[in-house]
Amino acid sequence: MWRSNYKACLLILLLSMSACKSSNQAEKEADCRIETLQIRTSLSGERDPNLQSAQTFEDLNQPYIDLGYTDRTIWIKLQSKPFAAEKKCYMVLEWPTLTNVDFFLETDAGNWNLYGQAGAVLERSKWKVAWLDYPSIPLLRNKEILVRINTRSLVRIPFFILSEEEVRNKTNDRTMYTSFYAGFMLAICLFSLFFFFTLKDQIYLWYGGYIFFVTMNFSLMYSSAPRILLSETPYWLNHGFFFSQALTLFFGVAFFREFVDLRSYYPRFDKIAIAILIFAALSSIASVLSDWNQLFSGVFSLIYMIWIPAFLIVTIRMLIQGQKHLLTFVITWGTFYSAAFVYILWITRVLQPNPIYFYLPVWALPLEVIFFAASIYERYKSIDSRRKILEIEMKTAVDRLSEFSLKPEKSQPSDGKTSKYIRSKIHNTNVNAILGEIERLFTQEMIFKEENLSLATLATRLELNPHQLSEICNTQLNTTFPRLLSYYRIQHSIHLLKEKSEWNILEIAYESGFGSKAAFNAEFKRITGQTPKQFRIFELT
Hints:
30% of the residues are buried. The protein contains 19 helices and ten strands. Helices cover 60% and strands 11% of the residues. The protein folds into three domains: 24-165, Immunoglobulin-like, CATH 2.60.40.2380; 180-380, Rhopdopsin 7-helix transmembrane proteins (Up-down Bundle), CATH 1.20.1070; 382-540, Arc Repressor Mutant, subunit A (Orthogonal Bundle). By secondary structure, the protein is an alpha+beta fold. The chain is elongated, with a radius of gyration of 35 Å. It has helices spanning 2-30, 49-52, 164-199, 202-222, 225-229, 234-260, 262-265, 267-289, 293-320, 327-347, 355-370, 372-406, 431-443, 455-461, 466-476, 481-499, 505-511, 517-528, 532-540, and strands at residues 34-42, 58-59, 64-68, 73-80, 89-93, 100-106, 112-118, 136-138, 145-150, 155-163. The strands form two sheets. The chain has a six-stranded antiparallel sheet. Pfam families: 7TMR-DISM_7TM (PF07695), 7TMR-DISMED2 (PF07696), HTH_18 (PF12833). The chain crosses the membrane at residues 176-197, 204-222, 242-260, 272-289, 295-314, 326-346, 358-377.
């Protein structure tokens, strides 16, 4: 009896082990995995799969193809491990600008025939797997596939071996995340445009353009939506990436110039920024009209590697010099552009391939956007503070001039304010009379209208030398001659903006003593916190 029970238990145990083994085998067969994966390159003109298949290949032991910028033809041999008959497996090349991919199957006669195509230069309808937004190769059970890649873009291509279910889930997740991302960025763009039209401040236009084109660039690189919407227009899809990259550079540099006031603090460096703006504008046009993808990628990478750290160093230096409103800007833009700089190092193959480097700028950009409002607030607070200090300084100077204009006959000896001048030049001068004459020249003769008026020319009219006049302005008026001159010119221009509504900005600039519209706009904004156009609009409303 016990022997029969023993035999029954043993039989059940063996059947269970067999079932587990079958289950494990079925699970293994259900997975999409690669058994053979090899790579080689040939000259760009060597495109015959029958010749190349017989050549020596090397094992590819990493989940990416890393060859940098190359004109050579890339060949890959791959064969999957057995998988269930009802299952579909794919090799997905996650690189949107991959130009052209052809894959071949070997016939019974030993020839390699075209099996399918994909790539950025082909309409989506011509892809072997048209529903996937990246170039993909459908794997076949127990069959070797030969892949030929020719591309003008960077060859640092991550790839994945996935089932159809995994691919669809990954695509759906990417579409959802990128849609939220794009919606958030679009909202920031709309806010920027709203503030631009409301406040008439150009800085919001530059920032809105920058956010729009960097989002467009990221969408073309990472998002599924553009490749779905523009699936039958590969030319614009492919060239749009470099077009948006050029305009991202343009609006980013323009915003930086305006935000830190590069013209005032670093005029020489500002000329370099202007040169970059010109290059970016021309590149945006050329990127649409030409196929120089490799050239654009290399040049843009070089420019970003230079200007990102250079501009950040300039900003930090200004922060150290007392521009406290730049602190938030340094933290936020510093974080984003540090991520972008790491990405550039990854592109140029300084860093080893890693998906983190590829996605780093995308993760860092929202942080920069979130703190943008704080940066703008700090900037306006700083501008308003400087403007109020300057206004008090000028009012004090003008009031002091008015006092002396009423009593020009009295003389006033120099006081302790001249102690900083070791050898004062005004001990034997009638300071009160000079101050009264300055007031008369500015208020009655309006000599500030003279475009070429300088410290030297005014000193000559007052029968002084420039050092004496400079000392009088500093010690008696607590200001400098250029500030005093600008103040009178701006006050006159404000009067004209209110009274001469038919005059344009350039006419008012010339009538107020400025030699150009640009100089007038910059000085007007420095003193009033607004541009002449903004002032006129708000005055009329």
